[in-house]
């Protein structure tokens, strides 16, 4: 084995490929074929649901994982990025993969790759798939990392593909327009298989592309939908008159979570003949589902709310949640963004809700210069006040010192931002 510790493996993977991102499938597919020659190309030994999109991917995977586990299936889930530790990316039966399991998978991949310079994400994707095969999971849930068409996850042919939403993000890789982004995201669709679209107003090209490749589109607002009763319970409706009634409100916050849950349920229903899930498991999963960094409210005073929102679509959902959340004092924000984001798009929806902002660069080489965020605040929130700090830790400390018990402090902008807040505010979770 090349390395003994997970940290050493991950540090080495960061240096192996000359580019952090290399969106091609030939290299990673060839390594996978050598790693598991017993498998048919593009297939796992179990059904696969691949989840892509700009926002809502993690929520959809989490709903599916909660439902399949509640139904008693051995479930593998691969997600990215992580909040606190790399192991979060690979889960089997709800448990994170151990350091030993990941190191063993990396060693097998290292041997199989020959001279192929895999990226960090490609190593992680191969390791997750290898762990799933060896654990003999009954269902594999794969979250797309970036895009879809050329993402490493897409070397596996999904039995069901779900695109949660389309929004502006990663323009340098996916294109400047929603139609271009939709084409890339639609790359996970397969002929003759369900293509679930979890957005009512998704760009037309997304559904058109599904039809072009011969996939079977199921779109929210068309073949799929939901309605809510005065009691708060909701009804899911699918094709051919299929319904699930009296479902409990999802434990994840926000109206968008009904859309995410409805789309995920649409994907689950497409595998019902192979993996049936009864309504009791559906209800249990909705009540128990958890997902860190999505309007996470920490106990205590003042109230701390953590959210990974980092694009326009996510910021709109965050603003809706924040506006409806009780706050008897002032609202503060601690904001830190990565350099490839649009600060105006993130700040705009929240401008009218935040009294004072604290800015600090995250501990990342990709951190956005504070001057860009300051300019966006001057333009998008001229009535607000703000202070800039040398780093994110100082920004968090300053917000804590300024806030009174009745106040609320929102920390948002990236996974790195939320990670820093969790390490400061919830050390027991680290």
Automatic annotation (TrEMBL):
The GO terms this record gives for MF are: ATP binding; dihydrofolate synthase activity; metal ion binding; tetrahydrofolylpolyglutamate synthase activity
Q: According to its record, what are the GO cellular component terms? A: cytoplasm
Its EC number(s): 6.3.2.12, 6.3.2.17
Coiled coil regions in record: none
Query: Which UniProt keywords are given for this protein, alphabetically ordered?
Result: ATP-binding, Folate biosynthesis, Ligase, Magnesium, Metal-binding, Nucleotide-binding
Record InterPro entries: Folylpolyglutamate_synth, Mur-like_cat_sf, Mur_ligase_C, Mur_ligase_C_dom_sf, Mur_ligase_cen
Superkingdom, taxonomy of origin: Bacteria
Names of required cofactors: Mg(2+)
Cite the Mur ligase C-terminal domain residue spans from the record.
293-415
Give the top-level enzyme category: ligase
Q: Which reaction does it catalyse?
A: 7,8-dihydropteroate + L-glutamate + ATP = 7,8-dihydrofolate + ADP + phosphate + H(+); 10-formyltetrahydrofolyl-(gamma-L-Glu)(n) + L-glutamate + ATP = 10-formyltetrahydrofolyl-(gamma-L-Glu)(n+1) + ADP + phosphate + H(+); (6S)-5,6,7,8-tetrahydrofolyl-(gamma-L-Glu)(n) + L-glutamate + ATP = (6S)-5,6,7,8-tetrahydrofolyl-(gamma-L-Glu)(n+1) + ADP + phosphate + H(+); (6R)-5,10-methylenetetrahydrofolyl-(gamma-L-Glu)(n) + L-glutamate + ATP = (6R)-5,10-methylenetetrahydrofolyl-(gamma-L-Glu)(n+1) + ADP + phosphate + H(+)
- Indicate the quaternary assembly: Monomer.
Write out the function statement from the record: Functions in two distinct reactions of the de novo folate biosynthetic pathway. Catalyzes the addition of a glutamate residue to dihydropteroate (7,8-dihydropteroate or H2Pte) to form dihydrofolate (7,8-dihydrofolate monoglutamate or H2Pte-Glu). Also catalyzes successive additions of L-glutamate to tetrahydrofolate or 10-formyltetrahydrofolate or 5,10-methylenetetrahydrofolate, leading to folylpolyglutamate derivatives.
Q: Which PANTHER family match?
A: DIHYDROFOLATE SYNTHETASE-RELATED, FOLYLPOLYGLUTAMATE SYNTHASE-RELATED
Q: What is this protein called?
A: Dihydrofolate synthase/folylpolyglutamate synthase
Q: Can you name the source organism?
A: Halochromatium salexigens (Chromatium salexigens)
Organism phylogeny: Bacteria, Pseudomonadati, Pseudomonadota, Gammaproteobacteria, Chromatiales
């Amino acid at each position: 084995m090349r390395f003994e510790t997970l940290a050493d493996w991950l540090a080495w993977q960061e240096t192996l490929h000359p580019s952090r991102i290399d969106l091609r499938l030939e290299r990673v597919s060839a390594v996978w074929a050598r790693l598991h020659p017993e498998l048919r190309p593009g297939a796992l030994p179990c059904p696969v649901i691949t989840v892509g999109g700009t926002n809502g991917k993690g929520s959809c995977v989490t709903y599916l994982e909660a439902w399949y586990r509640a139904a008693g299936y051995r479930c593998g889930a691969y997600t990215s990025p992580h909040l606190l530790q790399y192991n979060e990316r690979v889960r089997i039966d709800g448990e994170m993969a151990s350091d030993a399991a990941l190191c063993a998978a990396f060693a097998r991949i290292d041997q199989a790759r020959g001279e192929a310079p895999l990226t960090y994400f490609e190593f992680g994707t191969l390791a997750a798939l290898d762990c799933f095969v060896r654990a003999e999971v009954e269902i594999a849930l794969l979250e797309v990392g970036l895009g879809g068409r050329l993402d490493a996850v897409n070397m596996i042919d999904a039995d069901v593909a779900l695109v949660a939403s389309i929004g502006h993000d990663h323009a340098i890789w996916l294109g400047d327009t929603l139609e271009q982004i939709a084409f890339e995201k639609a790359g996970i669709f397969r002929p003759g298989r369900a293509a679930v679209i979890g957005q009512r107003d998704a760009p037309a090209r997304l559904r058109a592309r599904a039809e072009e490749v011969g996939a079977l589109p199921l779109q929210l607002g068309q073949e799929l939908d939901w309605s809510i009763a005065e009691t708060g319970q909701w009804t899911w409706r699918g094709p051919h008159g299929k319904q699930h009634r009296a479902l409990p409100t999802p434990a994840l916050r926000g109206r968008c979570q009904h859309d995410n849950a409805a789309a995920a349920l649409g994907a689950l229903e497409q595998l019902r003949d192979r993996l049936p899930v009864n309504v009791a498991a559906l209800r249990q999963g909705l009540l128990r589902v958890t997902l860190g960094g999505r309007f996470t409210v920490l106990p205590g005073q003042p109230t701390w709310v953590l959210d990974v929102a980092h694009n326009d679509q996510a910021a709109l959902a965050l603003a809706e949640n924040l506006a409806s959340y009780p706050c008897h004092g002032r609202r503060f924000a601690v904001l830190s963004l990565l350099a490839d984001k649009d600060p105006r798009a993130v700040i705009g929806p929240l401008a009218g809700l935040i009294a004072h902002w604290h800015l600090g660069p995250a501990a990342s080489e990709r951190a956005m210069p504070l001057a860009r965020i300051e300019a966006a605040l001057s333009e998008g929130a001229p009535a607000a006040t703000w202070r800039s700090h040398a780093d994110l830790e100082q920004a968090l400390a300053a917000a804590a010192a300024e806030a009174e018990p009745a106040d609320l402090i929102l920390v948002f902008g990236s996974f790195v931002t939320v990670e820093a807040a969790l390490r400061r505010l919830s050390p027991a979770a680290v």
